[in-house]
Amino acid sequence: MPFKTVMAVLGGDDTAKDLDRAIELAAEIDAHLSVVALQVAMAPTLGDYPVDTDWLDRRRAHQRAFRDRAESDRHICNASDVPSDFSSFYDEAGFLTEEITRRVFYTDIVVAGPQVMKERDLVRIIVDGALFDAMRPVLLLPAEGRGTLRPKRILVGWNGRIEAVRAVRESLDLLKEADMVHLTMVDPESPYGENDGEPGAEMAAYLARHGVAVTIDQLPGGGRDVADILDQHARDTSADMVVLGAYGHSRLRQRVFGGVTSSVLKAVRLPTLLVR
User: Angle 201-209/162-170 helices, nearest 10 degrees?
Assistant: First the structure.
């Protein structure tokens, strides 16, 4: 298994559940677990200006509550059999993004559980720091189920673009160990031109040469959301992981216009590996 260091990002009120799942994932593949607990510092609102002692007291209480949760999570890590390290940061969003980016350089995969995914400010930090800046894969875990880093049936969202190519290469060791990989396209077009080349055929051949058991699935869009189509097909094929190339546009365009990645981030239904 290629993943030797798993980073888990914790945030929100119920961090213990996300931590338990991260510990299970690291134990499953005998990896080191690096845990980072984050909290965006409480900022004053317009009604708090000029800043007075009341606001400072609320901020201290906010920070103290975060530190108490982090200390509890640290004890859980120390009590587990998984080798781990633990860090916690209470700061402005920009500084947290920089910290995540720096730490992700030295990890193989980032895990984000359902509790941290409820915190939209932390989701943006994970996306900016891990996906855009450090360009490391991020595994999103749904509220239901435990997730696995040894998936047996994988759906790969394929459109022939560089993000999808990187997703395949970053997940290649997972794909080789799977029983079946569904290379899935929605309303595919020939990569060369009209009536010239079967969509997905070259990537399927590439994967087959690596020993991957792969099949090509071409699905009609019918005007439906692509994320919904992929999710339904993943369920129909009993996939236990979805692999997607993330953010084909700049982060600004994605925030303005949305896209498949944005839809997935809003509703994670199956364990989903995002790669950029």
Answer: 20
DSSP string, 82-140: S-EEEEEEEE-HHHHHHHHHHHHTT-SEEEE-TTGGG-HHHHHHHIIIIIIIS---EEE
| Residue in the structure block whose two tokens are 């970053």 | 170
What is the percent of the chain where pLDDT is above 90? 72
Q: 199 CB contacts (<8 Å, ≥6 apart)?
A: 160, 185, 188, 189, 190, 191, 216, 218
Residue 43 — very low, low, confident or very high, per pLDDT cuts 50/70/90? confident
Closest listed residue to residue 64, CA positions, set 81, 88, 100? 88
Q: What does the pLDDT look like over 185-218, one tens digit per residue?
A: 999 976 655 555 689 999 999 999 999 999 999 9
Give the separation between CA 190 and CA 62, rounded to whole angstroms. Answer: 54
Alpha carbons 184 and 200: distance in angstroms, whole number: 8
Give CA–CA dist 14/163, Å, rounded.
33
